[in-house]
Specification:
By secondary structure, this protein is an alpha/beta fold. It is built from twelve helices and 16 strands. The strands form four sheets. The protein has an eight-stranded mixed β-sheet with strand order 1-16-15-14-13-12-9-8. A hairpin with a 7-residue loop joins β6 and β7. The longest helix has 18 residues.
């Protein structure tokens, strides 16, 4: 998963252990990837763990003798791990009038609802699976490795994360129905994280490609055409499912027309007026995404994504997309990739009052890592310079796989 770098202090206290209920998690087959690096661990047997996380537990983690294949069969059969329940909706004071919610496409208060969000927009398995094309990045087990990585991030002031799932092929379908399974990998993970870290800001990805047997962001017609409106219908259900689990910001990355307005209407209809939308406004059909698609095994089974993602040669088209997303109720506009598109970041920064996010994608990350390994560049200096350039171009938020490494660097400088 990618993680945003936010302007928060580097004095978050260290997190020691878990406090949750019984969770039985899966490893590589249904894992999540967090952006920051960690030391490779080899030679461990691939076993399934049970972690008690709502009660104090001073003993060792209990192992269940199940193979990965047996776990995958269990999940496909519907025997999914338990996760914390959805918290009840807070009650209003006695005497509060019962009204119909206002029909507002824009609610600026969504970007002010927590300290971490306000800081972002200030204008001034159980052993984790390494990702070969992204040195230092792992697909993280949903209830063990992920919690550890989030704890490390919070220790250095990173309190916002983005979740990207890797689901078993057996759960994929042409219509991506697993995307809105309330007991699926992403909703379970959101509930687990919110149970452990209630103030953590969780961004989610809204798109069908991790769940599609065709590997596309939308439903594919038999002639290869990506069906727009039918896909938007599925995305609305996915966004509501994520909001119901406790997501703070849903992030449609699919590039279907009209999806922001439809998602906003669906969230509001279900009472999730407080959930923000970060729209992938200018997402280009880029060659820089290769390592990430390897990580999630989400390459299209046929064709490419050029009929819905933007042409890298186009500049003014980004304004068309941004105007539409603003009008439909987006709270944040995102540009992807980052460094090759600094002109687009500046364009949106100059033309829109909304917060602008930039996604430093896997190809950008891997090139810097490779250059560092080959001693062709100073990895740390180039990493920090690249992030500074995104910020200089106008990005309020940066999604980067360097988040933990960069935050540690910043904390070291500040000490």
């Amino acid at each position: 998963m990618a993680s945003t770098i936010v302007n928060t202090p580097c004095t978050v206290p260290s997190v020691k252990g878990f406090e949750t209920q019984n969770y039985v998690g899966l490893r590589p087959i249904s894992s999540l990837r967090f952006n920051s690096g960690r030391t490779s661990i080899s030679g461990r047997s691939q076993r399934l763990f049970v972690v008690r996380a709502s009660e104090r537990h001073d003993g060792h983690v209990k192992k269940i003798e199940m193979s990965i294949e047996e776990c995958e069969v269990a999940v496909v059969a519907g025997n999914v791990p338990e996760a914390p329940p959805v918290p009840p909706k807070p009650a209003a004071p006695v005497g509060t009038p019962v009204i119909q919610p206002l029909q507002l496409s824009r609610r600026p208060r969504r970007n002010r609802k927590s300290p971490a969000l306000r800081a972002s927009f200030q204008e001034t398995s159980q052993e984790d699976t390494p990702i070969g094309a992204m040195p230092g990045c792992y697909r993280l087990g949903w209830r063990h490795g992920l919690l550890e990585e989030v704890a490390k991030a919070r220790d250095v002031g990173v309190n916002s994360i983005v979740l990207f799932p890797k689901v078993p092929d057996a759960l994929k379908s042409p219509t991506g129905d697993e995307a809105y399974n309330d007991n699926g990998l992403v909703p379970r993970t959101i509930r687990l994280l919110k149970d452990k870290y209630p103030d953590l800001v969780i961004y989610t990805d809204v798109a069908l490609d991790p769940y599609s047997s065709d590997g596309h962001d939308g439903i594919v017609r038999e002639d290869g055409v990506i069906m727009n409106d039918e896909t938007v219908h599925q995305l609305c259900k996915q966004a509501v499912s994520q909001a119901r689990a406790g997501a703070d910001v849903v992030s449609p990355s699919d590039m279907m027309d009209g999806r922001v307005g439809a998602i906003r209407a669906s969230l509001d209809a279900e009472g999730f007026h407080h959930v923000s939308i970060m729209s992938y406004t200018a997402k280009y059909a880029s060659s820089f995404y290769g390592p990430f698609r390897e990580a999630l095994d989400s390459n299209p089974r046929f064709g490419d994504k050029k009929t819905y993602q933007m042409n890298p040669a186009n500049y003014r088209e980004a304004l068309v997309e941004s105007h539409e997303d603003e009008a439909e109720g987006a709270d944040i506009l995102l540009v992807k990739p980052g460094l090759p598109y600094l002109d687009i970041i500046r364009l949106l920064r100059d033309q829109s009052p909304l917060p602008i996010a930039a996604y430093q994608v896997s190809g950008e990350y891997s090139m810097i890592k490779a250059g560092g390994v080959l001693k062709m560049i100073d990895e740390e200096r180039v990493m920090m310079e690249s992030l500074m350039c995104l910020r200089r171009a106008g990005a309020d938020i940066i999604l980067t796989y360097f988040a933990l490494q960069a935050a540690r660097c910043l904390c070291g400088e500040n000490r």
